[in-house]
Amino acid sequence: MRVTMIGTGYVGLVSGACFADFGHDVVCVDKDKSKIEKLENGEIPIFEPGLEALVAENVKAGRLSFSLDLAASAPEAHAIFIAVGTPSRRGDGFADLSYVYKAAEEVAEHMNGYTVVVTKSTVPVGTGGEVESIIRRARPDADFSVVSNPEFLREGAAIEDFKRPDRVVVGAEDERAKKVMRELYRPLFLNETPIVFTNRATSELIKYAANAFLATKITFINEMADLCENVGANVQEVARGIGLDGRIGPKFLHAGPGYGGSCFPKDTLALVRTAQSHEAPTKIVEAVVAINDERKRKMADRVIAACGGSLENKTIAVLGLTFKPNTDDMRDSPSLDIVPALQTAGANIRAFDPAGVNEAKELLRDIEYCEGPYETLDGADAVVLITEWDEFRALDLERVKSLLKSPVMVDLRNIYNPAEMAERGLEYHSIGRPASKKA
Ligand code: UDX
């Protein structure tokens, strides 16, 4: 099938490359000239493991190309995907749909023959209907269907998530559109991946409900972690103990500094606003948003407490800045709350992240950025671990101890074992587990 993908951001690029890998002819279109030039030169503008090779293979096979010009591919396309950004609208938290609607206008101008227009961007309930109206108004005679097909891609594991998803959700109102979608996802049908066909509004809501539920799960275990700290319990064991119940499941029960990233904060807020405006407020999700915001702000207090109540003239080593490992994405990362709060408390910051430093430099000022974990620790009064990159999981603890002025580690991701840390002579503070004093 011939596919046009509008938007070469995270979702568009990963989806476009994976559809090409399924054997379809895909053209990824973007208005950003420098992005298209980079892609044409084999450069990938985002950090995603495996994507560069996947793009290169499919370009070489002639199934994937990039273009500034929608008019060149849209008339021939069987399906046109809209995969543009839907950021939080400044001021009110509603999703900003202006890019989606602009794309719909352009699709109307260039499509030809029966075309399935698919919204891949995360869009509030009702957006598919609006996209349909925009196209219908511009082209009363056009032959088309509008389908919702949300993505469930995790950064850092996006290709795996696209090719081996738990499910594919398709919101389509007519049989012709369903047939095209079935054909597009044919390799997954052969794999027996569940494909949930539903109506458009339901599909749009599934995406928000999934993200809000996962954000709720994380927030729940974070609150349990706080309780564990006060009653001498261990949150990892609580998570295991409840997660083995098949009705609950073990995933997304890692306590930490609060969720961040490009989806959960934006989508939970957008769901709250949509629900309020439809007079069915989601009080649970409202609480999740507020608790998570507060949690991120309060994380610095743990570091201050671990350093004896004051950071005046102290140096704190920060390991990990991105909102999670295997990405360079800093959007809504807990580090954006934690680092400035440490600075306000008087600390000098030395920091290292394996991929996020370029992005971080724009957002976090007055920091000494280092080249690796050990350089960061050199002479610091304490180390705080914010992101669980693999390379922080097996640090040489003797070296850590000898480099730090005082052997204090605040681990916001629970990647070390408290008893072992005590044995090694480190004062170790983690989340929802008893702190260990050095032996
Ligand atoms: C998420 C969804 O997982 C994906 O399906 C959706 O399409 C986009 O949003 P992503 O933002 O890439 O993906 O990351 P994810 O792995 O879900 O983590 C989100 C945040 O939650 C991170 O800050 C992570 O550290 C945090 N998290 C996740 C926890 O604190 N605990 C957990 O148990 C899981």
Characterization of the model:
- The chain has 439 residues and is an alpha/beta fold.
- The protein has three domains: 2-198, 3-Layer(aba) Sandwich (Rossmann fold), CATH 3.40.50.720; 208-290, Orthogonal Bundle (N-(1-d-carboxylethyl)-l-norvaline Dehydrogenase, domain 2); 297-429, NAD(P)-binding Rossmann-like Domain (Rossmann fold, 3-Layer(aba) Sandwich).
- Helices cover 44% and strands 14% of the residues.
- The chain is built from 18 helices and 14 strands.
- Strands 3-2-1-4-5-6 form a six-stranded parallel beta sheet, sandwiched between helices. Strands 11-10-9-12-13-14 form a six-stranded parallel beta sheet. Strands 7-8 form a two-stranded parallel ribbon.
- Strand 4, helix 5 and strand 5 form a beta-alpha-beta unit.
- Helix 10 (200-231) packs across helix 11 (235-243) and helix 12 packs antiparallel against helix 13.
- It is elongated.
- The protein starts with a strand and ends in a 10-residue tail after the last strand.
- Uridine-5'-diphosphate-xylopyranose is lined by residues 151-155, 211, 214, 218, 252-254, 256, 259-264, 323-324.
List keywords for this structure.
Rossmann fold; six-stranded parallel β-sheet; N-(1-d-carboxylethyl)-l-norvaline Dehydrogenase, domain 2; 439 residues
